[in-house]
Amino acid sequence: MVFPYTLTNGTLADADEVMANLKYAKNNSWYKIIYASNISYGLIKFSSTIWQSENVRTTDAGATWSGSGYGAGYSADTNGVNGASMDAGSPGTAKYTTDSGATWNASSTAPPNANDIAQIHMFSDTIVVAGGRATSGKWVWYSSDGGDNWSQSTTGPVDDVYAIQMASITIGYLVDQDGSIWKTTDGGDNWVDTTDDFSITNDRRLSITCVDTDTLLLAGNSKSGLQKYVNSTNTVSTLYTASTAASAVTNWVKSTNGNYYIVLWYTGGNSGLVLDLLKYDGSDVYLKPLVSALGISDNPSSPQYWSELNNFCPLAKPVLIEVSDILYFNWGVNAILDVNVEEE
User: Fold this and answer.
1) What is the DSSP letter of 26?
2) Which helix (H) or strand (E) holds 16?
3) DSSP letter string over 297-326?
4) Residue 219 to residue 234: CA distance in whole angstroms
5) What is the pTM of this model?
C-alpha cells in the first residue's frame, strides 16, 4: 500500500514531484514485528542482522534474541562492528566492543567526573564523544580509541549538554540547555561557543544530527519543531513547527535512500497515541502521522520506555535504527515496530 506524506504546509506531496511517498507501508501505521519479554529498552545496530538492546542481542534481525546486551541503564552507539557505551544512571563506568556486541570490555580509563550522560555518539571506529552533566570540569567527554580511554574536554560548556554529534573526525557540534551551539574542530577536546543559538526552552526532549560539517538539524523540545543551523552563515531557521509539544523524540537516522528521519511522540496513552515521522531530504521537510492503537493484544499497556525519555537523559538509549529503507523502532519495553520508507 502506498500512501503520501503531508507537506508541512498542509498539502499532499506529489510523488513524481518530490519523491515523498512511503512504499508498502503497513496500514498507514507502524507494524509490530517483535514482542519478547527480554528485549527491554533501546536498540542499536552493528549490521543489517546484528542488533542489540540493553539486555539481549540478535544475529538474525530480530527473529531470535539471546546472550546479553550493552548494559542496563547504559547509553550506547555503534560504528560498524565497534561500539561504545556509558552508564547513564551511574556515570563513570564505560565499555566498548570490537566484535559487534558479542563481548563488551570495561574501558581502561572511564570518563572523569561524569554525573549524567545525555547522549553518546560514535562517529568512527575510534572517535567517540559524549555529553551530559559533570561534577566538575567541562560537561563533555571524548575518546580517540573507540571508547577504551576517555578524557574530559579541556574547554566547553558547564551547563547541561542535551545533544552531541560529530560530523567528521575533527568537527562536531553540541547543544546545551540554553540552546547554545558549540563546535569542536579537534575531535572533542576543545569546544567553542559559536554564539549562535537554537530557539529552545530548558527542555531535554530534543535530538540533533549533522547533515554535513556545516549543517545541523534539531528536532523536538517543547516547541516540537525542526530547526536548521548553518555554521558558515551563522543562521538558524525554523523548518517546521507542530501545533502540540512532543512528549519525546527518538534519535535521528539517515536511511539508505539518503533522507533523514526522526519520530516524535505525543502524549495521550495508547488510545490516543500519536507518532509523527518527520523526513528531511536536504531541502524540504515532510510529515507522516503514524497514529497508534496498533490493535495488538500483547501491546504493552503503555509505552513504558517513553517515561525514561522525560528524565535527564532523553537519548540515553537510542531506539531507532534503519536497514535497507526499513525503520525499526523500539517503542516500548519489549516491542519493536517497523515501517518501510523506500521511495517510489
Assistant:
1) S
2) helix 15-18
3) TT--SS-HHHHHHTSS-TTSS--EEEETTE
4) 18
5) 0.85
CB neighbours of residue 307 within 10 Å: 11
Q: In this predicted model, what pLDDT tens digit does every residue of 186-208 receive, in sequence order?
A: 999 999 999 999 988 777 778 99
Cell triple for 181: 551551539
Counted residue by residue, the chain has a size of: 344
Write down the residue that cell numbers 539486555 correspond to.
Answer: 55
Q: Which helix (H) or strand (E) holds 143?
A: strand 140-143
Q: How far apart are CA 141 and CA 83, in angstroms?
A: 16
Cell of 209: 544530527
pLDDT in tens, 199-238: 887 777 789 999 999 999 998 876 667 899 999 999 999 8
**Helix (H), strand (E) at residue 270:** helix 269-272
From the CB of residue 258, how many other CB atoms can be counted at a distance below 10 Å? 9
Find out whether 95 and 70 touch, Cβ atoms under 8 Å: yes
Q: How far apart are CA 98 and CA 134, in angstroms?
A: 27
Handedness of CA 318, 319, 322, 323 (dihedral sign): positive
Torsion angle in degrees (nearest 10) through CA of 54, 268, 221, 70: 0
pLDDT digits (tens, 9 = 90+) for 254-290: 998 899 999 887 765 444 456 778 889 888 888 776 6
DSSP state at residue 107: P
Three-state DSSP at 18 gives helix
CA distance 157 to 80: 30
Between CA 344 and CA 37 the distance in angstroms is 36
Q: Whose CA is closest to 261, among 165, 204, 166, 329?
A: 329
Q: Which of 18, 34, 116 is nearest to 326 (CA)?
A: 34
DSSP 108-126: SBPPTTEEEEEEEEE-SSS
The grid coordinates listed for 179 are 540552546
Alpha carbon 232 to its chain centroid, in Å, reads 25
Which of the 8 DSSP states describes residue 190? B
- Report phi then psi at 271, rounded to 5: -70, -25
